[in-house]
Amino acid sequence: MYKFDLPLDTREANAIARRRNCEEQRKSRIFDARTRQIGVDTAGLSAQIEEKRLRDQIENERKNAYDAEMIKNSQICSLLDTRQKNDTMRQNVELNKFRAEQQTAASRREFDLYDPESKKKDKPARVSDDDPRCQVSGLQLFQGEDLSAPERKKLQQEQMREWIKQQLNEKNREQEAARHAEALYQKKMMELDSRAVLLGKEEEECRRNLNIATKNYNAALDAERKAKEAIDKQKELDDNFTELSNQVFGDTLTENPAVAQSSFGAHRVITDRWKGMNEDQKAEIQRIREQQQAEKQRKTEEERELQMEYERSQLLQANAATLLQRETERKAAEVEKKIAEENMRLQKEQKDALTKLTKEVYTNPPTEAYFTQFNTGTR
Questions:
Q1: Among 92, 103, 259, 265, which is disulfide-ready with 251 (CB 3.0 to 4.6 Å)?
Q2: Higher pLDDT residue, 125 or 243?
Q3: How far is the CA of 180 from the CAs of 172, 184, 192, in angstroms?
Q4: Nearest to 27 by CA among 17, 35, 15
């Protein structure tokens, strides 16, 4: 139960009555056409002006007192701030002096973590190509790098100078040896020329003797050749007669079928000796051909039956697919019908809800009295 019948506070009731009285007086002044058009209350305005002047005078005195107190407090704060700054400055100077003398960076325990000269003092990450610290994951040693390139280049330059010196010495020695060889060559050529003249004379004598001996040898060879040709001619005549006899009385001209038989198998023949097939072989070939034709006809019949079976299977599958499609369409039509019925039901529910709102809930529309209650007060 709400406590609407409790008595109000006396001061609050007096304040409410006073405000209502002031409101009535203000309303009588504002809504009084004669007072509003002819003039205002001069005595009231004078009293208000005097009251405002006294209030401003008191406010100015209070403000001046506040300003004087604020200036005094500001001066005190400035002195205290200056003293605090001086004390802080002196403490900072003494602290910096103590730090510079007693707490140097090098004396700290963790100085090695941020030492600016640590990279100069630290051992390089890679000293040489065979440094054991250069692991695969360290990314310090790569294929094709060479840290000893300056030393090797210097050594190569020294080696190149030594090689050039050796080459110059060898070239000088070669030139000296060439001059010596040239002198020896000239001496040798003179000696050879003299010996060539002597040998030329001896060669001419030997050539004459050799021609005589060659002539005699060629005459002997010619007599031997003629005798050998006679023997070869008689032998060739005998060989031709023997070959002619072999051809006449041999298996080739007599058409012996055993001659064409190959040594690689009974079903193979030698083509240059084969004279054709006999009647038994032709009959065997005809029998095999008829057998192959029967086998081919049987395979053709089996393929035709298999094709007919495949076509029947395709027809059955098409009928089954048609039935499945019709079943799917029927189910889809049922689902659409259910959705339409559900939509009709929801439409009816929404229509009933709207009718309930318009006829039962919102049954109190605002009237003219609701709009005339405004602009009836002075505030």
A1: 259
A2: 243
A3: 12, 6, 18
A4: 35
Mean pLDDT of 222-249: 82
Tokens representing 95 are 């602290």
Tokens 């193979």 -> residue: 268
Q: Do residues 134 and 147 lie in contact, with contact meaning Cβ atoms separated by under 8 Å?
A: no
Q: What is the token pair recorded at 182?
A: 């040239």
Residue 145, pLDDT above cutoff 80: no
Q: What predicted TM-score, i.e. pTM, was given to this entire model?
A: 0.24
| 278-316 pLDDT, tens digit each | 788 788 889 999 999 999 999 999 999 999 999 988 999
CA distance 155 to 234: 89
Rounded to whole angstroms, how far apart are CA atoms 73 and 84? Answer: 16
Residue 320 CB contacts under 8 Å (≥ 6 apart), including other chains: none
Contact in structure between 36 and 30 (CB atoms under 8 Å):
yes
Alpha carbon 366 to chain centroid, angstroms: 72
> Which pair of tokens denotes residue 317?
């599958």
